[in-house]
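Let us begin with a simple case.
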Amino acid sequence: MVDDDAARHGAPRRRRGAEPHRRRARRAARRVPLRFLVWGAGAIGGTIGAHLARAGHDVTFVDRVGEHIAAINSSGLRITGPIAEFATRVPAFSPDELDGTFEHVVLAVKAQDTDAATRSLAPHLAGDGYVVSAQNGLNELVIKSVVGDERTMGCFVNFGADYLEPGVIQYAGRGAVVVGEIDGRVTPRLVELHRALRDFEERAILTTNIWGYLWGKLAYGAQLFATALTNDSIADALAAPAYRGLYVELAREVMRVARARGITPEGFDGFDPSAFAPEADAARSERSLDEMVAFNRRSAKTHSGVWRDIAVRKRRTEADAQLGPIIGLGAEVGVPTPLVARLIELMHDVEEGRRPQSRETLDLLKGALV
């Protein structure tokens, strides 16, 4: 999928045009409002876009759900929940209706839709613009294969949000928001984007190691997929003593692949990557799980988006698009990932109605522990 050097550091450096570089530096210094295209106005894109619009940025939404587009255009996008209650008027279009080009594009579709969405938005991407992935998984690899390395920005999000109904998003819990260039540089456009995102999350982080955050989220994401095999909340599932060994080993599989590929995973919101390193002792792993439980108990979002895809939205999850690359990238460096592979199989069983969301299904994954 990508060679080790690209996965660690991105593409070789190429100079951007001097004028766009200077223009971005001036804008970043003056904190000028930016013009954003948010492609995908669901839980993540809707939450980010609404907050950016409320802060004075020029935001345009694109979504493929007609009822959602109509509701946004007629009544605005409403954000509800324990953190914020407001509605903001922003234009929303279907992909076929959109006109114009944009320098700043936030991609917030499901991981399996990344390739198609990137190809659809590419004609609307300005020549000196970029696409930033507010998604789960290694979607930057897909995006850059379509628009190129120079027009791809890395992003990691871990806040809690849910699509409730057309025109309404629940912002349920704060969480990490991190942005970085895929080649590790600190550029004027990165500084500019980071400042804008602080209008949404004041603790947003600018990093030179975005791949480390993305791989950390992959490990945590594997754990979340496992919790979604049951009907337990995230916190209750991670707290259950009978399954803690399973959650630890799932994260360790992902961390082994990351280490073999030269990635240094980063921690966030209670997830400590060193606690899931092969050499980590049980007490350290337990502490990290305890901290993740505490983080999730503070959120009004009790269940993962994975669980919600199956139990509420009645649709396929992102299992193949998020977890599948772990298997392929592991195979490239000789690291087996049998638990992740079994997890994907069981997710398919649940998606297709062959097995229920239950602890009995999670027991089948636990049975794959060696």
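The second case is a distinct protein. As before, the sequence precedes its structure tokens.
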Amino acid sequence: MNQNDTNFYGINFEKIADTIIRLGVLFLLIGWCYDILKPFVLIIVWAVVIAIAFSPVYERVVRLFKGRKVLATIFVALILLIILVAPSILITQSLYEEINNFAHYYQTNEHLIPPPPETTKSWPTITKPIVEIWSSASEDLSKVALKYTDQIKIAGAWLLLSLAGIGKGILQFIVSIIIAMGLLLYSESLIKVSKNIFIKLIGSNGEHYAEVTVITIRNVVKGFLGVALIQATMIGVGFFLAGVPFAGIFTIICLFLAIIQVGIGPIAIPVVIYMYSVTDATTSTLLAVWVGITLISDNILKPIFLGRGNPPAPMLVIFLGAIGGFIYNGFIGLFLGAVILTLGYKFFLSWIDMEDDEPKIEELQTEGLQIDTEE
């Protein structure tokens, strides 16, 4: 009896030791693979998001090219790269010219900042410190710079880091678009693999969660990120045509505010007020009208892209996702954070509402989520 017990415990110990060694080797391999891919994780995840969001458009382009996927892939990639690179070049060129002008005016002691107009005397008392700084800067910018040296250093360092992060983010976007096009080219086999992964991880409801993932990503990209990009483009065009100083920086800030759902108003409205004080009334009025149209467009575009019903997530989720993503992952995190946090929010709600029977995808449509029936 004792001999049998000894053999039994010996066999169990061997099995346990064998399992621990196998798990150790597996975790080592997984950790090693993660370390290798760590520099590319954000790029790959964003590439997956782009591929999912643009797959309906890609399928239409494939039909337009009569099934020639390679040509369709190259065409879509070129369009996306042009949309990304062309505004980036214009904004960079604008920043370079404005910085050169700033340096020139500062060195020659010319008036870089125009004096505040007479209308500022009737402004509320709370704006008095701003008007005083404005007036001092218009008379002698160097004195103001010396007075606020510490604040300018902090703001300048933050601005340089932000611009560097934006440059890095644009490069990551370009690589993500290229990878996304490769994913779309082999989308049929990848769809099967992704569904199998969800089923393996979650079980019988895996296919449901795969559909939730696709629907949520498309709605967030279209309804929030897409609208923010359109608004930023509209306001940027207005700034450039009106000759607004540092139009590139203001456009980027407007894009940031639009993504976090604050809106472009906090930047666009002061810019319009400033333009009334430094340029002719016609240009300023046209800019004001264009800013008004851009502000209203948010209420028109979101219902079109999201459809009727509730948005895929509360504004607070989008706000926290965009801000947290930007702080944690930089410029690309501004876009990706909103998608990932919204996806987690939808998974959490689906898990709470999950029943024994597999949920029907049609139920998601009542929440304002639209399914591409062509897939």
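Residues 47-103+147-365 form one domain. Residues 356-362, 364-375 have pLDDT under 50 and may be disordered.
Keep these points in mind for the review questions at the end of the chapter.
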